[in-house]
Amino acid sequence: MNGEHDGSGGISPRAPWDDPALHERRRQEQGRNRHRDGHRHATSSKAPEALDLRLLAPALTCWVGAWWAVGLEAADAWRHALLLASGCTVLAAVLVVPVLRFRPPRHRADPRPGAPEHDPRAMGTLSASLLVCALCAATVLTISAAHLWARQRDPLSVAVASGQPVTLIGTVSQEPRVAATSRSTLVITALDVEQVDARDSTLSATVLGDTQWLGLPLGTRVQVRTRLRPTGPGRTEAAIVPKRAGLTVLGPPSGVLGAVTSIRAGLAQAVGAQGAEGAEEGQAYGRREPAPSCRASPWETTTPCRPRCARTCAPSP
Question: What integer is the mean pLDDT of 71-94?
Answer without folding.
Answer: 89
